[in-house]
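ok trying again, last paste got cut off:
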Amino acid sequence: MVFGMLSLVAGNAWLWRRHELLLHYFYAAELAAITHLLTLGFITSVCMGIIQRLLPLAVKISMRSRRLAQVQFGLFLAGVAGIVIHFWIHEWSGMAGGTLLVLAAAVVQLVNLADVFPAARQGHPVARHVAAALVFLVAAALLGVLLGLNKAALFDVHLLPAPLLPTLFAHMHLAAVGWVSNLIFGFQLKLVPATAGGRRWLALRFWLLQAGIVGLAATLLMQAPGRLLFAGLIAVAVAWHVWGPTRHFLTGRVREWSIVPLWLLVGVVGAGLTLAAGVLPDDGVLTSRLQVAYGYVGLVGWIVLTVVAMAFKLFPMWVWQERFQRDYGRRPVPGVTKLYSRRLRGISQTLLTVGVVGTASAILAGSAQALQIFPGLVLLGIVAFLANFVRMARWALLNLEYHPTPADWEDFRRMFPDAPGAAEP
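nice, full thing came through this time. structure:
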């Protein structure tokens, strides 16, 4: 979690400082370094942390070995550092070595969480998504290894199953949709119950998404027709997932911070369908800008905003359990929502939303001036989120003493009149 938060701040500060990269070709080495700092350093690191904490609650399954998890983190940390640093300095052998370490970490995670697969075969909806996500991470990492080795030219043969760009696009979609979005969709079935909808249709929705992911990657790698068809299957699964929360939002039963990232995802899917349909010229300026905006909103809009929204459902609960649960019923303790600032949460999520939409619009318009402003708003939103994260984490990390107010004592005596500490002033 800590490594993920540091990567989030560093990656967005770097991108704000070098915002002009967003108007250049998306496969520039420095932009690739920033992208991997965000996708691996932040998103994948936080997902790996969340999965260890949330899987026992959602599926009643734990990792097999804490030591294996420590090995996984060591491999992953070294791999991410190798990829990002060597992309930055244009040294391809070290970058290729980093991809091998990330692949090893993904395999270790797969082995350590292998107990999720029997639950997935039995039809547990969350377990199905988690199992698929674990497999797709290994597949994405494997393509990353091939891309890295090919870039480093360590062998005399062409290692990629397809030309560079189709392989790169398959790698990106296996990671963003197969790994991260699958994981988010699965856990949202628990955290945002409106996404579940009619449970009898969950299996169909799941398999539509998986067929779309596999089919899109396969058509890209084989350079075969059907790309639009499989992108359409993903779009149907996404729309189905988003419909329930949207309907509940209109009736006031879902908060705006849960629905905004899902609406951004719908926009990302629309851009993806446009690119898959090939209605824009491959070498056109608009196509290049749409590709960058598509990736940016998918990465910073859909995924980062979703992680931020999920954080305020998960992190306060975990901190409360670690720090205050043992004292519950014995003395006054703060409620979960008192561990963070609601005002600071609103500020951070507003800045993030405005910043993401503004940055994507600036990319499409080719406005360097606007790109001096909106990525800065994103960075400010992240700083506000990090301040709230520290506000939550300090209770567990620093073991601070909570001093109840008179109102806390009054509430405690009303709830637990027979507790040993109820008579204290």
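cool. The chain has a mean pLDDT of 92. Residues 2-323+334-396 form a domain with the Cytochrome C Oxidase; Chain A fold (CATH 1.20.210.10).
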